[in-house]
TrEMBL record, chains A, B, C, D:
This is Chorismate synthase. The keyword Amino-acid biosynthesis applies. PROSITE patterns: CHORISMATE_SYNTHASE_1 (PS00787), CHORISMATE_SYNTHASE_3 (PS00789). Gene3D superfamilies: Chorismate synthase AroC (3.60.150.10). The keyword Amino-acid biosynthesis applies. GO terms for cellular component: cytosol. InterPro entries: Chorismate_synth, Chorismate_synth_AroC_sf, Chorismate_synthase_CS. Belongs to the chorismate synthase family.
């Protein structure tokens, strides 16, 4: 379905060739300062063609708030946002049209909806994510105002070039502690904060682009300044909703939080995060953070961090032996130039979905906390 | 929250020391044959202490259907199920009680609910999963009757002993195609279908048990005979809901579908799954299955397979340097014997959550399909 | 479906001849004192056969809390509650079984579920409401602790014997202001607080009982000490959710709030509720209360009051000319003695549903209010 | 909240002075023919100022589909619809601005959201209903194609001029059987199908307009050609969701289905609807229809009919003694001309909400029906 969240609730619409894409965000607290200026930066970071163009294209993917604010403040009513599509004509794909593109959603959309949209995979298009990113600007404003929460994602792997993501590694923990969006973007369009690896990643991508091929990678994301107590066991554990959010992003193939897959090698005696008293705040904290900031589905106040693998882009101009919808064997080669690696552009989308999850978790927890005063 | 699903809807209750645990399943189609005999087998597979005991303990974790069936058939009304707790007294943990157990949910439950249940982490206890497993028996019956759907999970890794899970490896694909629960259980309590690796895994676990320590591992799960068209873009893509389901299981730290994390190395030319016509069925199928049976969030009819890492159990009897709730440093050592590896017991829980996801996806898609006749 | 509410969420189960009926209540704030003693009184008021029996039947409809409390306090986890059914055998209705009872749910359940439960109308049985009443005890405790909220329903009409319910009538407003459950029950089993009318109502019921017939009536309910700001426009206006709740009660045929149906005669100049300053509290209040305590879907702090009509009971032992399931004409006469008027027993159910609505509205509003501090 | 429905799901946005109002409709079955021409008629019927203007204002409240259709057919993806607001500037109400308008939502919105939108009551404005009416065009197309379902509402009372709505009255039943939107509109702007009463109603309204006052009335609605089996007990009984829908309409004060409030006088022997075999269709039908087409919360195939009272419009230009937000006593008189009776314009809104309820109930039931084939 196209709605995400329970109290902070986002509903998106739109596909590639319709009039516009956008969303309605319900449940936004009132009196929060908000204008399009809060929303545009991440939309701009999400835009395609950023790295190849030197001219600013600020006029593109421009979001317009339709409702729910007045004089630059939220009213508490639903906020609708719209981004116009430039290319609104249903395409004529001619020959290619007979082929469901391998590893695309053309075939499955046909099976599910019994109709072939000119955009092929309908809502599986990356353009659909604009509504999510627009909505996330509201969520981030709320989280930032509430607890100075910060959400930063970066490229941690392309092909087989990977940062060391061992949770017990102090360099990795330092990065999680200090990385900012500014630093990420300063690394160039690859968005990997390690300059040496960034260079290697660019070479990997260029190689596959030269081969009319594509390659995948991994996005790692950290959420800092998280209040304790967020997340709703048993089914809506905070990491479960984050996983849901991340796997809803086109081309993502997985999710791991904290020590993740590689942590299964660690015995309990090393994996457990022991407690200590933070003298400054008077609160308990953990010495290590293999848990990734969540225990039993509830935030413990440490940094939340997780990684999301993205497969190589399915659209390649190399020839592929495949079959038409009718089952005839043939060769398909996509026309035009295509993005050889979706990872750098996925970064604001990962941040967006993380923000939506955290905003909703915060509001739900707020509905509970009042009781501590009532029943004290 | 404690409800999962939209049409096939499961609500669970219960923690370690209350009177009973169980669930209500709403949205079950009527006229389906169903008795406790359909539900007990997976509950029995989930039970603790299976491998160490030679005496059958069939009397334990016995489920009782309370409502929603008559003369062995479902009525279409909610089905409530109850499993009594044997140990219903709130515990007196005495000394240990002052320590939030490292990497347990004691601390976060206290932060969230401002109360310390005698069970410590409240619903984070594995006992909570009984309601899920009971509910899954209904889902599996439905899926089996509808399309002969089969869901089989197995241990694919313990510590650093791992099966080869490369999706392009024919042996791995063969296992996915042929594995059954009978074969899994025939491998002994470790539930790894590779006899050689199974032996090594047992040794790993025994080593850590000897050290009063624990170790993690990975569960891999396959779903066969899946109809095309299941899954609800954009937010409720089938893999997104599966990820949500898996990360809601205690101690799980991740999820990957199809090629997953290791697939990011594969260029599009190798990762894409080309189509061919299956002469027998007259339907398109894919030559490879890196997608893991889902494209664009919708099932494509191939096997769905995914893996879930589980961390090492947090409760160990080794001494741990940590702090009390009040922030005093000290040493905690859990008393008694504890499960050194949760992976084998997680298997029916992974299967259960997969079944709940698939049943709900099936019913939602059914609400759409009628239209193809109406608008033909 | 069998779930009601968004944050304070009740899921019920059970029909007449299954093992038990009950519910799971999710989203209950932690640390609230709660035992079965809080829940039993309303269940006892709901019980059938109260007025004819002099012996106490306290052993009946006894609720057992299964989970979610410890040492008499809520944990914040789901609270499951069970009431055993005494008559658990599927009935053999023999001859009557061929007839769908007129104005019962036998026919529609058969059409919907394609199965004939031995209880006929399955969940349409009044026994289903036990779960609602059990859950309401939790909601009422919360509301009472939070703002001293009080919910009192009473019989305002039986057949054509009716209290004056004109909202501009001072006597009526006085009743709304001062009525208590104790006063309602002191009026005898008819539960009408006007002694003269109560006597007439009893006579009406006795007349119809003598004729082997039945009669309907109206329940009026008032909610006092309501905080301002509850209710979620635009679809979940407070009166809309109350209407939903009331029409979900078996045999109810309508809902009106404040001036309701008779208020349409009043011109705006008389119907509008002008404001004045309450010197004591420093808050605005309204001079009249035709709105019934809600404006624009949001509580304004005045008493919320509404009325719900209940039709005459469908099961009568008088002969009725009707048809069998197979369409054969015939005569049906229900055996045994039947309740000639459901109105008095509906009172705790109306109160229960009102409490569930208010508790959920309160928790949702709490998720919003924190922002006023953040954005001050 | 601003979302209605579970499978056929409508989310609306917008208030009086923002850029646009509209909605997103999710869960629409694919392949259904749909263009703006299907949606505009009801939006045009909803528009203000219709009766006083002789010039057509077709250019106003023009809906634009943004997504979810291609070549005039639905894709199965969300359909977003937008209607631009003409007056987009936040108003300057000057003096009036200090007064919360009596029986408006100004005060309660302030209490709930702690902010004063220039539109006063924010989403309580009638303009919010545009999104509902736009969405209903999709629902009606679906219902019409599926079972030729028809939904027709009409003015049945203004002030104390009322049609005879006794369900046992054959004239009333005849109207329910034969009324169409064309007939309703042919009665003139008052939309009462009884010409004599229509004239009297107009006089009542003119009298109150002359007095700078307003008056209320009742809308009655019938739904014909309803399949059996729709509605989801126990909480989402069909009449409960209809009541929810109707009470969510601004200015509505109640709901009654079938015999409603006046039916409580009828003994069971007269109120019960006996069955007979309809030789033509081979299905059971009922001789009378006091139930209003629903029994036990499930449609029985008879006409569904219900009535909704609307209070007199709150905005009147007569002087009212009231208080400012600050509690100072004063006199408020609304400027300009105001609608003295909202009833005629409420008609397409009542039809819209009925259509949304029925479409959702239909799709949910379809998710269940497949099982009858599976388990036959």
């Amino acid at each position: 379905m196209s709605t995400f969240g329970r109290i902070f609730k986002v509903t998106t619409y739109g596909e590639s060739h319709c009039k516009s894409v956008g969303c309605i965000v319900d449940g936004v607290p009132p009196n929060m300062p908000l204008t399009e200026l809060d929303l545009q930066p991440q939309l701009t970071r999400r835009r395609p063609g950023q790295s190849k163009l030197t001219t600013p294209r600020n006029e593109k993917d421009k979001v317009e708030i339709q409702s729910g604010t007045e004089f630059g403040k939220t009213l508490g009513t639903p906020i609708a946002m719209i981004v116009k599509n430039e290319d609104q004509r249903p395409h004529d794909y001619s020959d290619m049209d007979n082929y469901p593109r391998p590893s695309h959603a053309d075939f499955t959309y046909m099976e599910k909806y019994q109709t072939k949209a000119s955009s092929g995979g309908g809502r599986s298009s990356a353009r659909e994510t604009i509504g999510r990113v627009a909505a996330s600007g509201i969520a981030e404003k709320l989280l930032s105002k509430f607890s100075n929460m910060e959400i930063v994602a970066f490229t941690s792997q392309v092909g087989d070039v990977s940062m060391n993501k061992n949770p017990l590694d102090p360099t990795f923990q330092k990065i999680l502690q200090t990385i900012t969006r500014e630093k990420v973007d300063a690394c160039g369009p690859i968005r990997c904060p390690d300059p040496k690896l960034a260079g290697e990643m660019v070479k990997v991508i260029e190689k596959y682009r030269g081969d009319h091929d594509s390659i995948g990678g991994v996005v790692t994301c950290v959420i800092r300044n998280v209040p304790t107590g967020l997340g709703e066991p048993c089914f809506d554990k905070l990491e479960a909703v984050l996983a849901h959010a991340m796997l809803s992003i086109p081309a993502s193939k997985g999710f791991e939080i904290g020590s993740g897959f590689q942590g299964v090698n660690l015995p309990g005696s090393k994996h457990n995060d022991p407690f200590y008293l933070d003298e400054e705040t008077g609160k308990l904290r953990t010495k290590t953070n293999n848990s990734g900031g969540i225990q039993g589905g509830i935030s413990n106040g440490e940094n939340i961090y997780f990684s999301v693998p993205f497969k190589s882009a399915a659209t390649i101009s190399q020839e592929q032996e495949t079959a038409t919808y009718d089952g005839e064997n043939g060769v398909l080669a996509a026309k035009g130039r295509h993005d050889p690696c979706v990872v750098p552009r996925a970064i604001p989308i990962v941040e967006a979905m993380a923000a939506l999850v955290m905003a909703d978790a915060l509001l739900i927890q707020k509905s509970r906390e009042f009781s501590s005063k009532v029943f004290a």
